[in-house]
Amino acid sequence: MAASALRRGLLSTVSKYNKKHTLRILSSVVDSSSGFEVFRPRVQCRACGLSGGVQQRRFMSSRPEGKILETVGVFEAVKQHGKYETGQLFLHSVFGYRGIVLFPWHARLYDRDITPPMAESKPEPPGAHGSKEVKGKTHTYYQVLIDTRDCPHISQRSQTEAVTFLANHDDSRALYAIPGLDYVSHEDILPYNSAEQIPIQHELFERFLTFNPAKSPPFTARDTLKAWQEKNHPWLELSDVHRETTENIRVTVIPFYMGMREAQNSHVYWWRYCIRLENMGNEVVQLRERHWRIFSLSGTLETVRGRGVVGREPVLSKEQPAFQYSSHVSLQAPSGHMWGTFRIERTDGSHFDVRIPPFSLESNKDDKAPPAGYTF
């Protein structure tokens, strides 16, 4: 199943039904004349037997013509309170991929969008970045596995090798990634269940989880998952999330400490940071430039400017509103700060700057044990 086809065609319909009702994807058709797939899912509520129509939407697909969308599973009620358990199957509400929950993280969300009305707010001088104090609130994220069958359909919108580690050898800059590992916010989870014993294709699925029909969800953690989580906790831990919206473009930043390495008789501290840009409006825009300011506790202030991000200049539209990527930064000091802006272009050629919320780079982890990756 092309996960990208589910994201827009179904989600609007899911939200219209009572959360207690279960939804099943029944069928689709193909417009072979255009090379596009036109999905007209008929969503049926298993609780009341009612069917609802879905507005026709078109999606690019590399699948052969005539391929029919197959049933994946049955939607479950979205949890408004509490958390999802290990083994919960889900669809990502923004990127549309299939995944399974490994374990939760309880982060502190610092949301700078709680601002006074526009009529009361005062314009900031050029270069200012707002100095208001933002209080964090607890927010649940999940460590998840992505179904490898869906990776080709999301690779242009979200990196599928974004969770990286420092290598365990002398090269202080060497990194390696765990493909198909992601962090997902609670509100991005659309839970479903499946009768398949191996519903997710990923090399770690059977190492981490086992099928247990007596449980709900019917996938429980193996000892290898528990050991891997405990051993790699300092390098996987998600603790702080920062969010800010400028002119309907929301930027979310999650920093991760990766560890310290010695290079040329000095200590080098490494962080990775995950950034998600999301267009909350209807206007089509494109990211053109990035502008970073990086302050180190050693007293240095570095400015970084460049075209796009990770070699791309993503377009954010109503159909594909989000782009997510990860990058890295190193300092010769145990802590620092980062902030900046993205230059965004409208379709008429005009530009505006979107603020990147300031975030701290902290290294208050135990540096004695190197990351262990997913060796067992």
TrEMBL record:
One of its GO terms (cellular component) is nucleus. InterPro entries: ApaG_domain, ApaG_sf, Hemimethylated_DNA-bd_dom, Hemimethylated_DNA-bd_sf. It comes from Sander lucioperca (Pike-perch). Residues 243-368 form the ApaG domain. Keywords: DNA damage, DNA repair, Mitochondrion, Nucleus, Phosphoprotein, Transit peptide. Interacts with PCNA and POLD2. Interacts with SSBP1. Interacts with PRIMPOL; leading to enhance DNA polymerase activity of PRIMPOL. Interacts with POLH. Interacts with POLD1; leading to stimulate DNA polymerase activity of POLD1. This is Polymerase delta-interacting protein 2. GO terms for biological process: DNA repair; error-free translesion synthesis. Involved in DNA damage tolerance by regulating translesion synthesis (TLS) of templates carrying DNA damage lesions such as 8oxoG and abasic sites. May act by stimulating activity of DNA polymerases involved in TLS, such as PRIMPOL and polymerase delta (POLD1).
